[in-house]
Amino acid sequence: MNNLHLVKRSGNTLVRRIVCYIVAIIISMGIGAILLSVLGINPVSYYKDMLTIGLIGNRYAYKSVEGFLKVFVPLLMVSLALALSFKMRFWNIGGEGEFLVGAMCAAAVAFNFGSLPTAALIPLMCLAAIISSGLIGLAVAFLKCRFNTNETLITLMINYIVLYGVKYFGETKADWNFFLRDDSARPIFAKFPENAEMPGIHIGAFNLLYSVIFTLILTVIIYVYLKYTKQGYEIAVVGDSSDTARYAGIKVKRVTLRTMFLSASLIGLAGAFSASASATVSSSMTNSVGWTGIVVAWLSKLSIPGIFVASILISILQYGCQAASTSYPAIDRNYADLLQGIILFAVLVSDFTVTFKIVKRKEDASK
Amino acid sequence: MADGEYAIELRGISKTFGSIKANRNINLNLKKGEILALLGENGSGKTTLMNMLSGIYAPDSGSIFVDGKKVSISSPEDSVRLGIGMVHQHFKLVEAFSCADNIWAGVLNKGILLKKDRYKEVEDFAAKFGFTVDAKKQVSLMSVSEKQTLEILKVLYNGARVIILDEPTAVLTIQETRKLFDVLRKMKEQGHSIIIITHKLNEVMEISDRVAVLRKGEYIDTVKTSETDEKKLTELMVGHKVDLNIERGELRKTTPLLEIRDLTIRGDEGSIAVEGLNFYIRGGEMLGVAGIAGSGQKELCEAIAGLRPVEKGSIVHKGKNIAGLSPKTIFAQGIAFSFIPEDRLGMGLAPSLSIVDNVILKKYKKGKGPFVDRKTGRKEAAAIVKDYEVVTPSIDTPVRRLSGGNVQKVLLGREINSSPNVIVTAYAVRGLDIHSSYMVYDILNEQKKKGVGILFVGEDLDVMMALCDKIMVMCHGRLMGVVHAAKTNKEELGLMMTGALDLTSKSGKTAGIASDSALTMEEWERGPEPAEEVDDDE
User: Fold this and answer.
1) Does B120 reside within a domain?
2) Domain holding B158: CATH number?
3) Residue A363 and residue B326: Cβ atoms within 8 Å?
4) In the prediction, which pLDDT does B307 show?
5) Contact B492, B483 (CB under 8 A)
6) Which residues of chain B lie closer than 8 angstroms to A232, CB-CB?
């Protein structure tokens, strides 16, 4: 048993990495298939429905695409924003809270200035989200710079504070509470005025929201920002060694404050987009994007193209399961979470095989 | 146990990491009760080979014999069971534990309970080998040499008969090294076999019975120490004839470039690290700084580079006071700084970033617009790799993947490429092999010729006496005197380093103050005019 040992691989690993990831996904789907078969469901047709996110044989295929984008856009944007702070080794795990703050502030603008034209109202909502959420990021960074607090704990706690804050607004029926519907005795979040709904470009029946276009442009901008700009370079140096950054004349505190403001405000913006696209808010609207975003960012090793691809895959998985569950009532979106877990696990294992190989020790002849 | 002449015998050992062949078909043997020195340049595979003996790596092929019996070592526990112990270059101690607990943590089959008598037991055990230790002292409060003693004790306590020491003297002073060698000789008398890895040839000659030489992962030869000399060993190690004389660059000094007066600096814990220090460097002059580790060298360097606040006093560069300015401004004045810390990576480099990104570190803000100019950076990185013979797969390789010597070359190359007029360099050859060390000396001499003033903080007195023009000695943060390198000797320096000899008040005038200072007495008293801060905004 001592004859096997691990050896680090060398050479170009990109192709190997891709192959390993694909194999990992196939294996996990195989495990998923066993679970499906146990439930008496034909895995082939289920996977077909899931992977095509219900596009095939659907008269309202455009609805599927719209639904997919509703999952994809927030996930992509939050993952990108988290990558900004993670590059700096600043562990912002407050995505959930920052997302909700952005959404609620956008909603506050929507309910109070509903009479403004869309072209003014939507940017105003986005601005409110960016500033409110960004300030939270700034506050966390300030505490870290000033008192060297632990950002992981603080951002984590922000999630709960904000979540219960939203619940408070959602469950308190009062005259001042403009978030709720006037015509219902039970507290229910109201629908946004029409002007506050995210507009889009109509391609036939399909409505391509401006928020989608903006997010795609933003992906390219962040890619360029991190890779080619001076500020992006500063983030990399600060993340790698703050002593070295200080020594090179980089103002570490300023970079930390700036980057955390950017990171949190982008997450807030994602919240505003999401609220505006669905024309309402709720305490469950994040769809756990603050957590999934962490997974996506790490899965892609903080590479922006990687984040783009991983977001698409995870969104297909999540929305696909949702879509497929319409034809298979025995299965709901929990299956998506389960499958997601198995896939993540398999990909992590395959990561290991990308870096190492197991070889047998050669015995030489000179015994 | 008595069968076989050799305590350890390695036959045909090979080990590859990716595409790098760290060890190729190595045959090595260690006789019982001898001290074997393992010699080789950086990256010749010494540490890898020893790590296979201590169970950290497993060989790809080949066999290991202990006391004539073939064994398989696949974990550190196996190695301990076979009586092999290794003292690593980077100590493997639990900082928050006491001395005794660190020893206990590694003992196999010790039971669950921590016994109260462990402190006494450890102290008694230590006394057997002539060590005096405080078994209750926490590791974080220990000096480097105490930590090393603890590492050796740990190995002995585990019953090791074969002890491997990886560059044990790199972090020790001369006195501490002597003490260590006494201990090693004592262990040898008691029948232990010892392998010692070191770069310092004089130590090899002093302590070892035989010397085994590796070169580029291959075994070259084993020779008897008594039948060889430093020159022959170097040739074996490098593979060709080398000139072992360090050249002292011609001295063409100018007026004082950097003048330090009455400088007081606080250390990390708030205590005074440097007190009332006076000295100056002229252009074209190399001033060595000698002192026991922790005598304020680090704080002094950091203060000059602007990384540490100055409590009192002035640092005058070309007639302007730079004390208290930002690191960036000081760098812009032409003061380059290369400090090689113990881990060789901590200061001045971003380990995960590529060579290119590290080369542009200090000037990424130059040029208009929001984008970093990597084009020039790439050219410069390629030039540094070529000029300084940096061994690297490409200029996009992260710096942490390079071996120690190459990392240092990148750092030094970047600093010198900024065409400085003062170079502050600390431990520039720390851990470097002979070839690379001489290259660094050449680079520094080259700069000196150009009229650059150099502050050379070093460890090896022989090197400083041969390379520098003058040597300034510090003890507990105070100046003990400045001596001419060619006229002093090791004994005098040693006495000054320990504070037994103070030359500062010998001749009436205060040592360390230039007679042709850039400032007049009135200007000094008024306080030198501060230099202008560089605009920091993009």
Assistant:
1) yes
2) 3.40.50.300
3) no
4) 85
5) yes
6) 372
Task: Name every residue whose Cβ is closer than 8 Å to that of residue B314 and which is 6 or more positions away in sequence.
Answer: B259, B260, B261, B262, B263, B321, B323, B524, B527, B528
CA distances from B219 to B29, B235, B240, B484 (A): 11, 14, 16, 42
Helix or strand (DSSP H, E) at B8:
strand B6-17
A61-320 placed in CATH 1.10.8: no
Q: Where in chain A is the domain with CATH 1.10.3470?
A: 61-320
For chain B, residues with pLDDT lower than 70 are 1-4, 18-19, 108-114, 171, 242-244, 253, 341-347, 404, 431, 505-512, 518, 534-538
Q: What residues in chain A have their Cβ under 8 A from chain B's Cβ atoms?
A: 2, 5, 7-11, 228-234, 236-237, 240-241, 243-249, 251, 359, 361-364, 366-367
CB nearest to A230's CB, from B59, B61, B365: B365
Contact B99, B122 (CB under 8 A): yes
Residue B279 lies in a domain: no
First and final C-alpha spacing in chain B? 72
* Amino acid identity for residue A3 in this structure: N
pLDDT in tens, A168-211: 999 998 888 899 988 888 889 999 999 999 999 998 888 899 99
Domain span including residue B110: 6-238
Is residue B368, in this structure, part of any structural domain at all? no
Q: Domain for residue B300, yes or no?
A: no
- Contacts of residue A240 in chain B, CB cutoff 8 Å? 350-353
Nearest to A196 by CA among A122, A252, A106, A278: A122
Number of domains in chain B: 1
How far apart are alpha carbons B200 and B217 in whole angstroms?
A: 19
Helix (H, G, I), strand (E, B) or coil at B175: helix
Is the CB of B60 less than 8 angstroms away from the CB of A361?
yes
d(CA A90, CA B229): 54
Count helices and strands in chain B by DSSP H and E runs: 17, 20
Tell me if B316 sits within 8 A of B322, measured CB to CB.
yes
Write out chain B residues lying below 8 Å of A13, CB-based.
none
CB contacts of B347 in chain A (<8 Å) are: 243-244, 247
Which of A3, A4, A223, A240 to probe by mutation at the B interface, max B CB count within 10 Å? A240
Of residues A230, A247, A363, nearest to B371 (C-beta): A230
Residues A350, A20 contacting (CB under 8 angstroms): yes
- The set of residues, in sequence order, having a beta carbon less than 8 Å from that of B481 and lying 6+ positions away, is B472, B473, B496, B501, B502, B503, B504, B506, B511
